[in-house]
């Protein structure tokens, strides 16, 4: 009886291990063609041109200019604003490049210590990109 029980438990454990390999291997599966096409469509979803937008910072409006070429963001410029110079400088140095790299603001984090200024730039870019859709 003990031998039959051991074989049953060993067989059951083997099946569980095999099943878990199947589940785990699916986690690393490449994107489907449909998912890749969706990502590519989003990447080229903008009309070419230069668009203006305005976001609200801590101390006032933050104007931004977004340039789109071949359906992708190629440049983000932050205009004159009333933000604290040190905070605005850290945002202007890092955020535009991250937005260009991401081809939008989704997933772009605000600059630590300059949350309101960062959010103003992000909001301004989003306003500009609404015109480019």
Overview features:
133 residues; alpha+beta; three-stranded antiparallel sheet; 54% helix
Walkthrough of the structure:
This protein has 133 residues and is α+β, with helices and mostly antiparallel strands. The chain is built from 4 helices and 3 strands, in the order ααβββαα. A 3-stranded antiparallel sheet has the order 1-2-3. The N and C termini lie far apart (72 Å).
Number of helices: 4
Average pLDDT score = 84
Structural class: alpha+beta
Helix content: 40-55%
* Radius of gyration, CA atoms, in whole angstroms: 25 Å
Instruction: Please indicate the percent range of residues in DSSP E strands (runs of 2 or more).
Output: 15-25%
Beta strand count: 3
Which term fits the overall shape?
elongated
What is this structure's SSE topology?
Elements (H helix, E strand, L loop, with lengths): L1 H26 L5 H11 L5 E8 L4 E9 L2 E7 L6 H18 L12 H17 L2
Antiparallel strand pairs: 1-2, 2-3
Care to give the gist of this entry?
This protein is α+β, with helices and mostly antiparallel strands and 133 residues long. It has 4 helices and 3 strands.
